[in-house]
């Protein structure tokens, strides 16, 4: 049994440990779960993620409940099939999907996960990041997965509904060390229907476009949408399409924050990335680690995050060698399978 200290790394460490246990077919024990946080132990979205992997692998588990600081997870073979899970309390659906997605590299049977909860919430990538950045990027290397979004869910109420569809995937080595030329930018802006009269979605687009047009000389396309949701909310996602890569930058609207400034905030993140030299943004770098470990390859990113550090140590516990080299311009992450 693999034994993991979960004090550092937060919920991502727990989710990744369970995903790796399922892929490798080995049991894992995680102590001090989120021990470094003000509220240690599992939260509702972590429980939902672990329950989903547990259902897909018919796992024998202990401590998979809110507040638990020790988790034991003994997976069986990946069964496939259909799973329905309620994250609740506007917990993050994308983080649940993140947990089970690496199983695509080990399953022999397709599976789907239909989840209710938050699609666009704090401390989590918005669902659009997965749909327009992460999944298209990984599909280039052989990932067979897609997301259908039926309803948006913003904080504080849940009610978002999305389905992840996964097929067995032979993922090729993920080599993306140079992004190439910037080919275009797309601004995706969404606001709930109760904000339509104030044209919040369009104003977010305007703020993002105004921040980009003076510095980025490529076509900028826009998508503005009004949606139904149980809670008022907005989100803007700015996606940069490079010759060899994709990058995404987002911002969630908040009361008192002008819509134009929400769009501008996401656009400024893109501007900072564009003036750096990494091939993938820092969030994508974090999320690619299990795929790099399993399939091999190498990527570059502007900065080395704490998530990369903690995930690297975890991957090495499972026998994967992950090399990280940082200089003044960027960080290179690669595996022994390059």
TrEMBL record:
| Domain RNA 3'-terminal phosphate cyclase, chain residue ranges per copy | 7-318
Q: What is its EC number?
A: 6.5.1.4
The signal peptide, as residue positions, is none
- Its primary localisation, in coarse terms, equals cytoplasm
Q: Where in the cell is it found?
A: Cytoplasm
Q: Name one Pfam family in it.
A: RTC
Q: Which residues form the RNA 3'-terminal phosphate cyclase insert domain?
A: 178-274
Q: Which superkingdom?
A: Archaea
Please list the residues that bind ATP: 98, 283-287
Q: Function, please?
A: Catalyzes the conversion of 3'-phosphate to a 2',3'-cyclic phosphodiester at the end of RNA. The mechanism of action of the enzyme occurs in 3 steps: (A) adenylation of the enzyme by ATP; (B) transfer of adenylate to an RNA-N3'P to produce RNA-N3'PP5'A; (C) and attack of the adjacent 2'-hydroxyl on the 3'-phosphorus in the diester linkage to produce the cyclic end product. The biological role of this enzyme is unknown but it is likely to function in some aspects of cellular RNA processing.
Similarity comment text for this entry = Belongs to the RNA 3'-terminal cyclase family. Type 1 subfamily.
Q: What name does UniProt use for this protein?
A: RNA 3'-terminal phosphate cyclase
Q: Specify the species.
A: Halodesulfurarchaeum formicicum
């Amino acid at each position: 049994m693999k034994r993991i200290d979960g004090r550092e790394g937060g919920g991502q460490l727990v989710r990744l440990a369970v995903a790796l246990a399922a892929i490798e077919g080995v049991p894992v024990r995680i102590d001090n779960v989120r021990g470094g946080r003000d509220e240690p132990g599992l939260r509702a979205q972590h429980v939902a993620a672990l329950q989903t992997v547990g259902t897909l692998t018919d796992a024998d588990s202990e401590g998979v409940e809110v507040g638990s600081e020790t988790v034991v997870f003994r997976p069986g073979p990946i069964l496939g099939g259909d799973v329905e899970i309620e994250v609740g309390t506007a917990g993050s659906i994308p983080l649940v999907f993140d947990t089970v997605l690496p199983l695509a590299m080990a399953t022999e049977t397709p599976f789907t996960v239909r989840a209710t909860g938050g699609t666009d919430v704090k401390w989590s990538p918005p669902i659009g990041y997965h749909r327009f950045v992460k999944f298209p990027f990984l599909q280039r290397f052989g990932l067979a997965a897609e997301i259908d979004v039926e309803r948006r869910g913003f904080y504080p109420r849940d009610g978002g509904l999305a389905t992840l569809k996964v097929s067995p995937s032979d993922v090729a080595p993920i080599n993306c060390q140079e992004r190439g030329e910037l080919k275009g930018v797309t601004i995706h802006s969404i606001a709930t229907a109760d904000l339509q009269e104030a044209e919040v979605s369009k104003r977010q687009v305007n703020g993002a476009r105004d921040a980009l047009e003076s510095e980025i000389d490529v076509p900028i396309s826009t998508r503005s949408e009004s949606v139904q949701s149980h809670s008022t909310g907005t989100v803007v996602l700015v996606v940069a399409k490079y010759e060899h890569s994709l990058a995404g930058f987002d911002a969630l609207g908040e009361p008192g924050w002008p819509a134009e400034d929400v769009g501008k905030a996401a656009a400024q993140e893109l501007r900072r990335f564009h003036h750096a030299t990494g091939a993938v943004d820092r969030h994508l770098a974090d999320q690619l680690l299990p795929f790099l470990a399993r399939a091999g390859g190498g990527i570059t990113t502007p900065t080395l995050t704490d998530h990369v550090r903690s995930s690297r140590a975890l991957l090495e516990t499972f026998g994967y060698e992950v090399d990280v080299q940082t200089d003044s311009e960027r960080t290179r992450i690669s595996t022994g399978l390059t």
